[in-house]
Amino acid sequence: MEHPTWQITILTFALSLSVLIGIFYNRWLSGRGRSLFIRRIPGLSALDEAVGRATEMGRPVLFVPGIGSLDIVSLQALAILSHVTRIAARYGSRVIVPSADSIVFTLAEEVSREAYTAEDAADHYDPEDVRYLSDNQFAFASGVVGILNREKVASACYFGSFFAESLILAETGHQVGAIQVAGTPSTTQIPFFLAACDYTIIGDEFFAASAYLSREPTLLGSLVGQDVAKGIIIALVIAGTAIATVFGVQSGVLKGLLGL
Amino acid sequence: MDFILYLGKWLASPRHGLALWLLIAGGLALGVAIFLLLRATPGRYRKLIVMAVTFLAGLFYIAEFFWSGTIFGVENFLSPAVQPLGDVIMVVGSFTLLLGVVNLVAIHAKAIRAVRPGWHNSLAFFIAMVAIMAAGLIPYLQEQSGQKGSQSWTAVYQILFNGMLAPLGATMFSLVAFYIVSASYRAFRIRSGEATLMMLAAFLVMLGMVPIGIYLTHWLPETGALSNLRLERITQWILTGPNAAAQRAIAFGIAVGGLAMALRIWLSLEKGSFFDKQ
Amino acid sequence: MIILRALLNIDRRIMYGLLCLTIVVMLKWPVKQPLSTTHAVKGVYDAVEAIPHDKIAIVSIVWSSSTMAENGPQTEAIMRHLFKRGIRFAILPWDQQGATLAKDIAEKVSAEMGKTYGVDWCDWGYRPAYLYQILPALAKDIPATIKKDYRGEDVRKLPMMRGVKTIHDVGLVADITPSGTLDAWISQIQGVYKTPIVFAPTLVMVPEAYNPLDAGQIKGMLPGLPGAGQYEQMLNYVGFGQKGSGALSGSFILIIVLIILGNVGLVASRRRRPEDGGGD
Predict the structure, then answer these.
(1) Under an 8 A CB cutoff, do C262 and B166 touch?
(2) Which of A36, A93, B66, C91 has a CA that sits 20 to 30 A from residue B135's CA?
(3) Residue A38 — very low, low, confident or very high, per pLDDT cuts 50/70/90?
């Protein structure tokens, strides 16, 4: 394994530290009965509406946790799944979770079961609703298209890593008349979700989801820390631009600072 | 340190025959013992164990990654363990694949047993699964046992993979083209100033990417100020200017968001979602 | 007015039919269209031209049959250029289908250009796509990591692999992919060893790739099918890149026309509404 330069090491620690300071600062703040403001994210607020609609129509909700393997993105998708399933459990609705990765499938099964149990609705949980389909991208896509059509889902949520299959899923969902909410850090797929879904959350809004949905002080504090970290990056970009403008892009000063 | 290195090497060294079977049996027995121990542990202690294991696993990768050269005269002794640990992760992943297959078999077997609507699709699933497994495994086993691979099995393999799976994959992907047409027809409506701007940008990029668009402004000079009005130049500017800037900004946000999420999981601070449910 | 308002909700089956017709017609009767070479495509050409003759190139294949229409012509164009310059190259497939498809292209082009397997090119055989695990080892010791080619022969015994030990013996990596593998190549190979990389993605991935291109992490890029067409033009041969670009032009024009029609319908419906007494 290659090791990072000291510049990257310092930057990583600075960014991590700002996130941790944000977390502990907000914990301290909430201990004094104060809380931080978090702006409204329509896509996440719409999740309640999506599940509610499915309940009214007596049809299931579809939740696709992306097609990526177990990583940070999939873990965040599973955190959102937990929230969606808990609302559905409260209303007595079904949430169908097709999976393209066997590890994510195993965790999704656990998350769904626990969400129903936590809402005292364990009898509503159907193990067949969490399904492993295929790790082949388009075999998985055709499987989800089949579920969308056969089960006549009322609401579809797409959260996680998506690739070329994103539009196939979202457009089919639109054709069956489902209310659709999507969120992905895969930037190339955002335009497709924007075109075919009712709500799309983009970029780091995706990682803000668990904080937004739970309003837990630790997670809200993490958001504050993230903003500070982004501030550090912006400052570095401005400093880099100034140095490159004064000394030139190929200058030793810039290369030395970047460790090139 | 030396013990860790020795253990890593001992575990990673290839084995055959009885030694291999003994190691597998030992591994299984250890796994069952840990499982039973965890089951017997009260909930809050179990949570502490999970937190400790998560922390140590994260610490290993962080320390290994940032430990460059020597620190206080100590060399990075963690690096040799990265590869064997990667293998462990792959083995665990392979076992979960088995869970996935079990889930598929259970769902489709139940559908056939109960003669549910569409049960014939479940039957098709079993036929396809057995056929693909046979076509892949039989020639391999024949080769392993020193026999010449049967021509008919190779033909079955060709039909299933190249004749069916490949065109089916291509067909599914080609659906994207059709869906792009209907989605863009619906999405690009001049409902507001921003939407109009977005539509114009889309027109310019689409035209600037293909020959016919480039042909539309090919009469403009290739150099000088007027050359900037050539469609491919405008497209290039949109892609390398506003697009690249927005992509970078999103990428920074995603990277920081990912880092924060990773830290929360590593330090078991990710509460309020699925991590603290018992 | 009714017709104009009907444009607001054109049946999707009509749109799909029109698209199908456009593609079939434009592929059957291709119209020769001029292709202007972009800076990104020229970057790929220059990077291949700059490979020293004592180094090999790696052609990384991540695509499968689903994106063959775009990635196939890109692969062929890059292989042709490498053969033309007499640069030895190795195919490194990360996809089972792509392994066969890329080998077929190499066999076809090498037979056409009188090249020999093992001497001018070789195929390292399919690897599971664990790029982050495999690339660091590959960089340090190529023969030990690859071991055998797709035929099961020891790569050390292939004439073209003589003297090839580490990533320093590689003059160029061409990552031909519909997937996010470029990050692995940049972080594990280009960033560490400064090995030049060129990128051949599908058209949908292009907007994301301008960042590494702009930052100099990749030397050039072939944006989807039009990129392959431009490259073919630079190499003076007509392949599917140029033939298929016509169908792509036709499809894009159809999309633009449909969007315009939809907006005409929208404007017409807005004008109609005040008379109906309705609002937006």
Answers:
(1) no
(2) C91
(3) confident
The mean pLDDT of chain A is 90
Residue B216 belongs to some domain of the structure:
yes
Residue B125 lies in a domain: no
Q: For helices B166-187 and A166-175, what crossing angle results, to 10°?
A: 60
Distance of alpha carbon A61 from alpha carbon A87, whole angstroms? 11
Quick check: C1 pLDDT over 80? no
Give the minimum alpha-carbon distance from B183 to chain A in angstroms, rounded to a whole number: 6
Which fold is adopted by the domain A42-213? Answer: Rossmann fold (3.40.50)
- pLDDT given at position A109: 93
Q: Is B196 inside any structural domain?
A: yes
Question: Residue A61: pLDDT band by 50, 70, 90 thresholds?
Answer: very high
Q: Is the ipTM of this complex over 0.90?
A: no
Asked whether residue C200 is domain-assigned, the answer is yes
With an 8 Å Cβ cutoff, are C208 and A188 in contact? Answer: yes
Contacting subunits of C (3+ beta carbon pairs below 8 A): A, B
Helix runs in chain B, H state only? 2-12, 17-40, 43-66, 82-113, 119-144, 151-158, 166-187, 193-209, 211-216, 231-238, 244-266
Q: Which of A187, A188, A249 has the highest number of chain C CBs within 10 A, making it the mutation to test binding with C?
A: A188
Mean pLDDT on B221-245: 89
| pLDDT, tens digit, 9 for 90 and up, residues C77-133 | 999 999 999 999 999 999 888 998 999 999 999 999 999 999 999 999 998 877 887
Is residue B162 in some structural domain? no
Over residues A107-163, the pLDDT tens digits come to 999 999 999 999 999 888 998 999 999 888 888 999 999 999 999 999 999 999 998
Please give the residue range of the domain that contains residue B224. Answer: 191-266
What does the pLDDT read at residue A151?
Answer: 93
Range of the domain at C51: 39-239
CB contact under 8 A, B96 and A187: no
Indicate whether C45 pLDDT > 50: yes
Candidates B106, B264, B274; nearest CB to A111: B274
Q: Is residue C226 domain-resident?
A: yes
Whole-number pLDDT of residue C280:
38
The structural domain count of chain C equals 1
- Residue C195 Cα, gap to closest chain B Cα (Å): 22
Q: Which of C204, C233, C207 is nearest to C44 (CA)?
A: C233
| Chain C CB contacts of B192 below 8 Å | none
Q: Using CA coordinates, name the residue in chain A closest to B170.
A: A138
Number of domains in chain B: 1
Chain A residues lying within 8 Å of C189, measured CB to CB: none
Q: How far is the C-alpha of C256 from the C-alpha of C269, rounded, in Å? A: 20
Distance in angstroms (rounded) separating the CA atoms of residues B28 and B9: 20
Q: pLDDT tens, A205-233?
A: 898 888 888 888 888 899 999 999 999 99
Instruction: State mean pLDDT over C32-42.
Output: 83
The residue length of chain C stands at: 280
Using an 8 Å Cβ cutoff, are A103 and A67 in contact? no
- Give the three-class secondary structure for C24: helix
The CATH number given to whatever domain includes residue C93 is 3.40.50
Instruction: Return the domain boundaries, chain A.
Output: 6-36+220-258, 42-213
pTM of this structure: 0.85
Q: Is residue C57 part of a domain?
A: yes
Q: Among partner residues B184, B243, B247, which is closest to C255 by beta-carbon distance? A: B184
